[in-house]
């Protein structure tokens, strides 16, 4: 918790002096976006569970989208982050399918009915 608060303070202290001549809303938006990216990176570093690391990666991506929306003239960042989101969804779906196939020896839903308590 202390590390998260320190990262948010670091983001504010870094972004606000750099963007002194920009509108106030854009300055705060960039500070918030950088803090979201840093918190996502902290989550990826400190968590050992793969799903929580994917959540951290998605958090970092959402911070990049927030930065791209707040600053005019950055459509490439939005397109790249959308492509990264689709790729991450495919990776997570592939992991789930692989785990189901490994545990039940098939991905056919008909074979899963006996595990739910239903009779075939």
Helix content: over 70%
SSE string, helix = H, strand = E? HHHHH
Beta content comes to under 5%
Helix segment tally: 5
Average of per-residue pLDDT values: 80
**Nearest-angstrom radius of gyration?**
20 Å
Low-confidence stretches: none
Q: Give the biggest sheet.
A: none
Derived structural class: mainly alpha
Question: How far apart, in Å, are the first and last alpha carbons?
Answer: 50 Å
Overall 3D geometry? elongated
Quick one: how many beta strands?
0
Structure notes:
By secondary structure, the chain is mainly alpha-helical. The protein has five helices and no strands. α1 (2-18) packs antiparallel against α2 (24-46), α2 runs antiparallel to α3 (50-70) and α3 runs antiparallel to α4 (75-104). The chain is elongated. The mean pLDDT is 80.
Walk me through the topology.
Elements: H1 2-18, H2 24-46, H3 50-70, H4 75-104, H5 113-116
Properties at a glance:
single chain; 120 residues; 0% strand; mainly alpha; elongated; 5 helices
Brief rundown of the structure:
The protein has 120 residues and is mainly alpha-helical.
């Amino acid at each position: 918790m202390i590390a998260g608060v320190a990262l948010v303070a670091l983001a504010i202290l870094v972004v606000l002096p750099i963007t002194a001549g920009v509108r106030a809303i854009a300055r705060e938006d960039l500070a918030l976006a950088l803090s979201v990216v840093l918190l996502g990176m902290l989550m990826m570093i400190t968590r050992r569970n793969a799903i929580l690391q994917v959540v951290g990666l998605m958090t970092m991506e959402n911070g990049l989208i927030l930065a791209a929306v707040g600053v005019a003239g950055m459509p490439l960042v939005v397109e790249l982050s959308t492509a990264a989101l689709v790729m991450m969804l495919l990776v997570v779906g592939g992991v789930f399918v692989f785990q189901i196939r490994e545990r039940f020896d098939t991905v056919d839903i008909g074979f899963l009915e006996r595990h739910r308590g239903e009779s075939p």
